[in-house]
Design a protein that fits this description.
Elements (H helix, E strand, L loop, with lengths): L4 E6 L7 H15 L3 E6 L26 H8 L6 E7 L7 H10 L16 E7 L4 H6 L2 H15 L4 E7 L12 H14 L6
Parallel strand pairs: 1-2, 1-3, 3-4, 4-5
Helix pairs in contact: 1-6
Bound molecules: flavin mononucleotide (FMN).
The site of flavin mononucleotide has 15 residues, from α1.
Length: 198
């Protein structure tokens, strides 16, 4: 079924980063295809990724009331059929900001624990990777990250899960020749993600 409402959750300290530009590309392409887009810019929203006591799950009580920020942000997902995460790879993982979003907002009783309210949504993960594809595969990071993202989606009952890695974002591990055409190819690859939602 075609996506109608997309929610892009993204994390980068700079609003003019390559990560932000990839968000713009996806947003633009989705809009051109009549998908309504809402973005959650975790840094500019002032999100605090540290899980404090208020947001610690009570395993006996899936009805627990968490902080108002958590209920507000989880509520923002409800009418969206498609969730897109855009982030730079940091230490072969999520930036802490995004990990904290999952820890706090996708909490027990909300995202999991009494039947997931996220099952049925589509997810697209878009990771910007500084290094080369060869090294990412050689050291096992590709499998590690793919297994984690697929595992997280299936834990939540999400069947339509897509992962895109955008390589050589800093052009150090591998010569990226004419930078401009390399970055154009990353923008094109990110726009093509929208094709999988139509
Ligand atoms: C704290 C930190 C950790 C990073 N760790 C990795 C890494 O593990 N592997 C990798 O390929 N690139 C790594 N990078 C490079 C980022 O992936 C790269 O800066 C990003 O994809 C470029 O997008 P941006 O310009 O939007 O930041 C790291 C960068 C930072 C700042």
């Amino acid at each position: 079924m075609k996506s109608e409402n997309m929610y892009i959750i993204w994390s980068h300290p700079r609003a003019d980063s390559l990560t932000a530009k990839i968000v713009e590309e996806i947003q633009g392409e989705a809009t051109r295809n009549d998908i309504s887009v809402t973005t959650l810019d975790l840094y500019r929203r002032g999100f605090n990724p540290a899980l404090e006591q208020d947001d610690e799950p009570d395993w006996q009580n899936p009805q627990k009331q968490y902080s108002s920020e958590v209920h507000q942000l989880f509520g923002e997902l409800q009418d969206k059929d498609t969730l897109v995460f855009v982030f730079p790879l940091w230490w072969y993982s999520f930036p802490a900001m995004l990990k904290g979003y999952l820890d706090r907002v996708w909490n027990h009783g909300l995202a999991y624990g009494k039947g997931s309210t996220l099952a049925g949504k589509k997810i697209r993960w878009v990771a910007l990777i500084g290094g080369s594809e060869d090294k990412f595969i050689e050291y096992g990071w590709c499998k590690n990250m793919t297994d984690f993202l697929n595992g997280a989606a299936s834990y939540l009952g999400i069947e339509d899960n897509g992962i895109t890695f955008l390589y050589n974002t800093i052009g150090v591990e591998q010569d990226i020749g004419d930078n401009q055409s390399h970055y154009e190819s990353l923008f094109e690859k990110s726009r093509r993600i929208v094709d999988t939602l139509l």
